[in-house]
Amino acid sequence: MTAEAAPTVAAILEDATRRLREAHVPDPRREAVALLAMALGTDRGGVAARKPDPVAARDAARFAELVASRALRKPLQHLVGRAEFRGLEFDVSPDVLIPRPETEDLVQAVLDAGLEDGARVADLGTGSGCIAVTLAVARPSWQLVAVDLSADALRVAARNATTHGVADRVRFVSRDFATFREDERGVYDAVVSNPPYVPEDEWQGLQPEVRDHEPRIALVPGSTGNEAYEAVVRAAIDMLRSGGLLALELGWKSEEAVRAIVAAEGFQQIATTPDLQGIPRVLTARR
Q1: Residue 193: which of 148, 224, 160, 154 has the closest Cα?
Q2: Which contiguous run of DSSP H or E holds residue 238?
Q3: What is the four-CA torsion angle of 145, 146, 150, 156, rounded to 10 degrees?
Q4: What pLDDT, in 10s, does the model give residues 38-68?
Q5: Which residues of the chain have pLDDT under 70?
Q6: Contact yes or no for 269/243 (Cβ under 8 A)
Q7: Using CB atoms within 10 A of its CB, is residue 58 exposed (0-12), middle (13-18) or buried (19+)?
C-alpha cells in the first residue's frame, strides 16, 4: 500500500472557496486565498505560485480551522489579527472596531484642515487607535491624546502606536469620551471622533461579522444612534480652543441630526463630505 497523496494548494483552495460560498461569506475566493496565505506563511502571490504543490498535513489542518471559523462568519481580520488602514497595518481583536475605509476619509479631513505644526489633537473613542496613530505618523510634530472607556481597546491601540513608532506622541487615556479634565479646557486644536452611531433597531440587521463579533459598545450608542454625537460635541466645545476643528464620521443617515446637534452648541463653518457612494460621511466644523 502507498500513502495517500497530499492535497495540492489548488485543491484545498477550491474546496475552501465552495465552503465559504455555501456559508454566504462575501467574496469567498478572495477570503479563501487570504486564509491559505496565512496558513502557509506566505502572501497571495505565494499562494498562486504554489497551486500545484502538495500541502503539508499540519498546514492543511491549520487552514481547515481557519476556514471553519470564517464559515461561522468570524471576521477575516480577527482570524489574521490585523487590518490595513491608509497603508498601515493595525492589530485588531474582538475588543475593538475593525478599521473601515470610510474612516480614512475622516483622517484625510483632519490632515487637510490646515492645522499648524505642534497641533494638539484629541481622538475620542479611539478603539484600535487607527485614527490617532495614523495622524501621528502623517504629522510628526502633532501631539495626540486618544480616549477610550475600554482598557482592552487601549491595550490594542497602544501596541499599534508602538508598532508604528509614535508611542511617544500618542497619550492613551481611559475614560468616557463624554468627559474631560478641567486642565484640558480650550487646549486642543482639533477633536476627532468616529463614535458609535448604529440605532438600536438597526443593530440586529447588521452582517454577522459585525453584529456577533465586534464590540456592541463601539457600534450602538442608544435608541436613536445620535446619543454619542451629543456627548462628543458637548465635550468638544469645552476642549477646543477658539477656531478649533471638530471632525466627525457620520452614519449613513446621520447628517441632518448631527448638523443640528453641532449647530446647537455654537459651532460654525459646518460642512459635510460624501464618501464614494455619495453618502455624507464626514462632518467638520469650527468652534
Answers
A1: 148
A2: helix 227-239
A3: -120
A4: 999 999 999 999 999 999 999 999 999 999 9
A5: 1-4
A6: no
A7: exposed
Read off the C-alpha cell for 239: 476642549
The residue written with cell numbers 468616529 in the block is 194
Distances (CA, A) of 74 to 23, 34, 57, 268, 271: 11, 14, 24, 42, 37
C-alpha cell at 252: 449613513
**CA–CA separation, 65 vs 235, rounded Å?**
45
Strand ranges (DSSP E) for the chain?
82-85, 88-91, 120-124, 143-148, 170-174, 188-193, 240-249, 268-274, 280-286
For the entire predicted model, the pTM comes to: 0.91
Give the distance, in angstroms, between the CA of residue 18 and the centroid of all CA atoms in the same chain.
Answer: 29
- Give the number of other Cβ atoms within 10 Å of residue 41's Cβ: 9
Helical (H) or strand (E) element with 121: strand 120-124
Return the bridge partners of 147, or none.
Answer: 124, 173
Give the three-class secondary structure for 88. Answer: strand
Please, what is the angle between helix 130-138 and helix 151-163, to 10°? Answer: 20
Distance CA 26, CA 73 (A): 10
Element (H, E) at 281: strand 280-286
Placement of cell 465552495 in the chain: 18
Please give the helix or strand (H or E) that residue 82 lies within, else none.
strand 82-85
